[in-house]
Each structure stands twice: as C-alpha cells, then as structure tokens.
Amino acid sequence: MRRDRFRTFFEASPTARLLRSDNAPLILDFLYRVFKSGELISIGQTDLRTRLSGYQEEIHETEPALLPGPPERYLTQWSDAGWLQRFLEAASVEPQFQLTRYAEEAIQFVDSAVARGANLVGTESRLRLVIATLEDIVRGASANPDRRIEYLRAQRAVIDAEIQAIESGKSVQVYRPAQIRERFQNAVDLLRGLQSDFRAVEERFQSIAREVQQLQASGHDTRGDILGHALDSEDLLKQQDEGISFFAFVSFLFSPNQQALLRKNIEEIQHLAALADQHESLSRVRRMVPSLLAEAEKVMRTTARLSATLRRLLDARAAAHRVRLANVLRDIRQHALQLRGASASQTIQLSLDADAEIASPMARTFWVPPQDFDERQLTEQLIDPRHAQAMASAFAKLQRLDLRKLRGHIREATVLGKNETLAHLLTRWPLTGGVVELLGYLQIAHDDAHLIDPSQIDRIHILQTRGRTTILQVSIPRIVFQPKAATRESATKPR
C-alpha cells in the first residue's frame, strides 16, 4: 500500500513534478522571491511578467542557456502544471496569480531541507511540545469532571509553589539562551507551514464552487438538487478536519483580545538578547499578524464567492427563464414527434416570437468636423554625439526612487500597531537618496491617507550625496504614519 502511494505521488503529484523539474532551483527561487520574500498572496499578470523578465536577465548574465523563452510561456506552463493558480478578481482589470498548495509544499520542503543544516536542531523543546500536546489531548478528550478537577488542582498547586518560591526570595527559573532559540525556531517552522494549509482549504472551497457551476450548466439536475449538493458539500467541508481547524483559527485570530495579547508577546520577543541575531525570523514574526489576517481574508473571499453562486442559483427570475425555455423545448419536441410520420413533401414552417428591437435616434453621435493639422516642413535632425553622451551620463546618475521599499519601511515600523513619525522613522532608515527620497515619503503619506499635521514643523537633516559633505536642512509638516488597520473603520487587517 505504501509503495503504491509513493509511486502515485511521484507520478501524479504536481509537488513531485516541480521537485523533479530540470529548472526546479530557478522556479522555486523565483516563486520564493515574489510570494515569500515579497510577502504577496497574489500578484497581477503584468507585474509578475515584469519580475520574471528581470529575473531572466539576471540569470542570463552568467548562464544564458537557462529559461531562454518569453515570460508568458513559462507562466502558462507553470499554471498548467498546477504550480500557479490564475484567476480573475472583480476589483482587478487583469488576471491574478497565486501559489497553489503544491508549490507551497515544494517551497516548504526545500526551504526546510536547506535550513536544517544551518538552524538549531531542537530536541528538548520538541519533546516537551509532544508531551504537552499529548497531555492536552487526554485532558480535552475526557468528559469526566473528576479528572478535570484533579488536573486543575494539580496545576494550581504548581503555580502556588512557584509563587511561594519567588516570594521567599528564591531565584526565578528562566530559559537559557539555547532553550529560547530552540523554542523560537519551532514556532517559526510552524508559522511557515500555515500558508500551505490556507491553500488547501481555499482550493476545497473553489472545487465546491466549480461543481455547483458544472451541475447548473449541465441542466440535468433540478435547482433543488444543485442547491442540496452545494449545501451538503459546504457542511461536509465544515465538518472535515481542515474545515473545523480553519474556522476555529479564524475565530481565534479575529478576536481583539487574542490579537492584542499576540502583538504584546511579539513586541517583547523582539527585545530578547538571545534572539538578537535571528533577523529574518524576527522579521517574519513581526509580520505574523498582518500576514495571517490577509491569508484568512483571502480564504473568506473564496467562501463569499461560493455564497454568491448559491444566491444566483436561488434567483427566482433566472429559474422562471429556465422553466420557460424548458417548456418551449418540450413543445418543439412534441410537434416534431407529431410530424415524424408526415411525408417529406409537406412544408414545415417555424415561427419565432421575438422582442422588437428599438433603437433611439438620440443614441447616434453628432457630426464633428475632421481635425485639421498644421503643415510643418520636416528638417533633418543632427545628433551631437558629445551632447547625447552627456545626457546619457546625467540620466544614469539619477537616483532611483523605490516606493515599494519605502512602504516596506513604513509597514515594518507600524506593524505592532503604533504610530510612527517620519522624523523618528528616518533615524532607523536614514535617507540615502537625498531630497527625492524625502519627497517619496511625502507622496506616500498623501496617497495612503496618513496623518499630515501642518501646525507642527519637523526639520529633517539630509547629508548630500555624490561626494558632497554639506548637510541640507528641510522643514516639512509633521508626518505621522499610522497602522493600516487604523485608516479604515472596523478594518480587520492592514492593507
């Protein structure tokens, strides 16, 4: 049985096909850069194509034979292979792409295998986690009140003994740095695995929506049968293990008290000396709450589309049109059966009643005279090579303004739910692009509806670039960057 399952996995699973692909290192690296390092759940087709084109240029500098085709071809191939999901959103004018659960599994497997040699291999914390989980299962599965009271009393005795020890002046038992790093690495590993779970639940909801649409389009089942199938499938999903776990997760995460407690713990973890060198993991934990909220909201939008499909199915007007069409087709079949024995010399006539087409004469546009263009005498344009070289040199020296990077600084500074002034933010990320970069922050503050207070003035000191040592002082209104959740009433996640 296990051998057959392994063979089926390696022959049919998109995850195995991705890992066995000749370009697997390049595909996984590109997908990780875009969706994991870029903290994106979905991305537009134009943006993804541009990023893939830039990635190909980077590769071709050293290995021109790899990924030689156009970006559109690879995006189509990866979508057909089941590694990328292509879909349309109502608020978007172009197709969107996101990772499938198979790509998530492949990235998670390779990332875990590569990091296993560099990360701490924690055995003590994992054993404690296993023991605590088993105890929790035994306690939660028992309906015996005596056993529950016995456990609570034992827990209270342990807490009382620890309180007495501290009050008597004994030293407090704390984790050693190695134990802190070990437990922190376990938490980060569990956090990485959550996104593939989101993709699995979301794809299950999408499969239910596709089944409902296929049954509705076939016309063989009645409206009640289709509705019953959809409701039974949705109830079955909610009763399955992944559905129960997901809805419990959403209820837990969207609780304001749990969010506040989680943010507080994350803020305290950032200041632990034992984790000072864990920059990437700390950054991932800082983005934990916004990332999980965005993932949960993405799945909830999928369930909303399923509900919209059910509402369209229950539309009485659409049902009436289908009944009317079925009656007309039945009448045609009856007349055809009556004429089946008639001779071929008889003339068969068919009349159709259709609504009259009424066109409004006011719908036609008014006459507009053709546009006249001034006649110009064309002259030969001579290009001065020295002037063109000087212009090209000046263009190359222009400072690039990366608004995505600046927004990343703002998001990281406000991820814990606190406001941050521009002046204080620049102490953490000093300006490297001069006045242009400062104008970028001002433009973001205006576009993203952050707080701009003209009554207070902040003075920003800018060290001039390109070899200059002078300091430029700029006076600007006070800019206060707010968490994205505070920019909308009843918002559930940062934008």
Question: How would you sum up this structure, described in words?
Answer:
- The protein has 495 residues and is mainly alpha-helical.
- Among the domains are: 2-115, Arc Repressor Mutant, subunit A (Orthogonal Bundle), CATH 1.10.10; 174-313, no CATH class; 403-487, no CATH class.
- The protein is built from 20 helices and six strands.
- The strands form two sheets. It has a three-stranded antiparallel β-sheet with strand order 1-3-2. It has a three-stranded antiparallel β-sheet with strand order 4-6-5.
- Helix 2 (14-20) packs across helix 6 (101-115) and helix 10 (194-218) packs parallel to helix 15 (288-313).
- The two termini are 47 Å apart.
